[in-house]
Task: structure prediction
Amino acid sequence: MSAAYHKSPKAPDRILEFDLSSELNHGMAVSNLAYAVASELGLDKDVCYELAIAGMLHDIGKLKLTGYINGQEQDPLVIEELKYVRMHSKLGYEELKGQGYSDFILESILYHHENYDGSGYPSNKAGEDIPIGARILRVCDVFAALSSDRPYRKAFDMDTVMELMIDEVKNFDMEVFLAFQKVVHK
Result:
């Protein structure tokens, strides 16, 4: 067998396994949830629509990350991957800036991993300093991630997802979290 046809085995349990189909499904789930939560909060229809766009695009920075991680070395350490994964919201923001998206969409994407208690990234924003769009995306993103299969684990059932989210409720804006609960329990 020639070297051109020999493929290296895939590293097990990689944090950043980029599967375009899974990422699109995740984006659609976050988009639909974000629209519904924003509507439940009584936000303007234009804001709800912009959140649907932000939900679809929130992880676009992961496309850039696959080049960093997969192009650097054969088998990067998982801890190194985590460092790069934390860059995806900023990379997505930079990629979309100047392409006609509103500041609301861009900031929602940039800050969607900020936790309400200030422990998130990329800027350690807390409470009301986190834009409302990012606070909505945060809850929807966590739910969509926990309730679907990931490269490193199977999806959790709905009861387990809600228990896990309640255990980490300090990460979420309570008003947003309550609106989210109304949406998912309808």
